[in-house]
Amino acid sequence: MVMYNKAVLDNGLRVITSTMPHSRSVCLAILVGAGSCYESKEEAGISHFAEHLFFKGTQRRPTSKEITQDIEG
Questions:
Q1: Does 39 participate in catalysis according to the annotation?
Q2: SUPFAM superfamilies this protein is in (predicted)?
C-alpha cells in the first residue's frame, strides 16, 4: 500500500506527495479540475487555449516531442 501526504496551499492548490526511498527519480503529475463545463460565458474557450499552451510547443521547443525530450532527458 502506497502512503501519501496531502496538503492544501494558501491559494487552494492541493499537493499530494509520496516518498519512495529506494527510487532515484521523481514523477510529477499536474491534474487540473477544469474544462469547458466549468467556464462562464466570459471565460469560454480558456481551457482549450491553455491546452494548446501546454501541449503545442513554444518558440524554443516548437513541437511536443521536443518538450518531452527536454523533460525526460
A1: no
A2: LuxS/MPP-like metallohydrolase
DSSP labels for 11-58?
TS-EEEE---TT------------SGGG--TTTTTHHHHHHHHHHS--
This prediction has a pTM of 0.43
Per-residue confidence of the chain (73 residues) as pLDDT tens digits? 778 899 999 998 889 999 888 888 888 777 777 788 888 999 899 888 877 777 777 788 888 788 778 877 7
